[in-house]
Amino acid sequence: MNDMGDGVKVVALGGGHGLYTTLSALRLLTPNTTAIVTVADDGGSSGRLREEFDILPPGDLRMALSALCDDGEWNLTWRDVLQYRFKSDGVLNGHALGNLLLAGVWDLLGDPVRGLDLVGRLLHISGRVLPMAAIPLQIEADIAEDARIRTITGQAEVATCNADIRQVRIVPENPPAVCEAIEAIGEADWVIFGPGSWFTSVIPHLLVPELLEALIASKARRALIINLVPDNETRRLSASDHVRSFQEHAPDLRLDTVLIDVDADINWDNLRHASASAGAQVVARPVADKSDPARHDAQLLSAALSELFN
Q1: How many CB atoms are located within 10 Å of the residue 310 CB?
Q2: Is there a contact between 282 and 247 (Cβ–Cβ < 8 Å)?
Q3: How do the domains of the chain map onto residue ranges?
Q4: Alpha helices of the chain — where are they, by DSSP H?
Q5: By the 8 A CB rule, do 18 and 26 touch?
Q6: Is the peptide bond before 172 cis (omega within 30 degrees of 0)?
Q7: C-alpha distances in angstroms, 278 versus 148, 271, 297?
Q8: Strand order, beta sheet including 138-145
């Protein structure tokens, strides 16, 4: 813990492994972290449970809970239980136990937020995990292909399309927001976007109208963490393109900081210009994992975020 007393209030938006790393870094800084997690996953265990039970896809929410889990034998054991995946020749193959637990708790309580809070108490998490919307969403993307624009549907397909993605949308286009998420944004000192899958984990938060309105109205400072390497969604996007894409999807939402690894192989002048257009300054710090340069190091990211917060 740093010297911030009870801790700065932070809202982190994203999903998957990117959000996991951000939350792992924030857990070292403050107990007042709220994760707002994408709910558009339609692949793997989450997709199967979503289709069978018509529930929020639990996978990214499970990972966020695990990331905020406090140290200690009890907590870390339950984290491992949540992350355990079955391996078999039957119908349970590939399911994460935590996904099944969340599905059961939601069915029992009839309230996803209460269910997440209950599992959070089981793990003694530092903070809170909330869904981006109250219902499961679908992602649509317009991609440029063979000199024409084609629309593809589904998080799994968009995430693996390896194409020039021009625009993304969510279906339904005006889903009900979670009131607790709106309240957390209103009370936040900082809002953190990314890192993570750009068009399927980060940008979708800007497409929920009530969520976007809360982000624009919030007095919190806003930071965007740039990915370390391109993925299937962003092979054609530079670091500055990420900032411009953010602005295109949310032109009224200003940024304060764009955080990037100090050794990034980019056009720094272009990034500074794009960031300035969004109202932000570029902060370059060592945040890459030395053993895996494609991933952020939670300790280094924590140090960089602590510097920003102070």
Answers
A1: 10
A2: no
A3: 10-138+166-309
A4: 16-26, 44-53, 59-67, 73-83, 97-109, 112-123, 155-159, 179-187, 209-217, 239-249, 268-277, 298-309
A5: no
A6: yes
A7: 30, 11, 26
A8: 148-153, 138-145, 164-171
Residue 111 tokens, joined: 């309230």
CATH number of 10-138+166-309: 3.40.50.10680
Statement: the pTM of the whole predicted model exceeds 0.85: yes
Report residue 95 CA to chain centroid gap.
21
Rounded CA-CA distance 255/246 in Å is: 10
The pLDDT-based confidence of 6 (bands split at 50, 70, 90) is low
Tokens standing for residue 49: 């449970």
Contact (Cβ atoms closer than 8 angstroms) between residue 142 and residue 88: no
Return the SS3 of 192. Answer: strand
User: Which one, of 39, 27, 38, lies nearest residue 1 by Cα?
Assistant: 27
Calculate mean pLDDT across residues 38-67: 96
